[in-house]
Amino acid sequence: MNDLYLKLKDAYSDKNLNKITATIIELYKTKQFERIRNISNTIGNFVDMDDKNISKCFSKLVMTYHPDKETYYSNEIEKYFKDSNREGLRQLSHILLIQDLESIPVSAPVLDDIDYSPEYIYDVERESHGFYAESESDAFESEEEAFYQDDNTFFTALKRKIYGRINIDMPTYYLEDLDEIDLTENEIDSLEGLEFCTHTAILDLSKNQITDISELWNLKQIEELYLSDNQIGYIDSIGNLVKLRVVDLSNNLIDDLSPLFDLENLEYVNVVGNKVPRNQIEELMAKDVIVVY
Question: What predicted TM-score, i.e. pTM, was given to this entire model?
Answer without folding.
Answer: 0.81
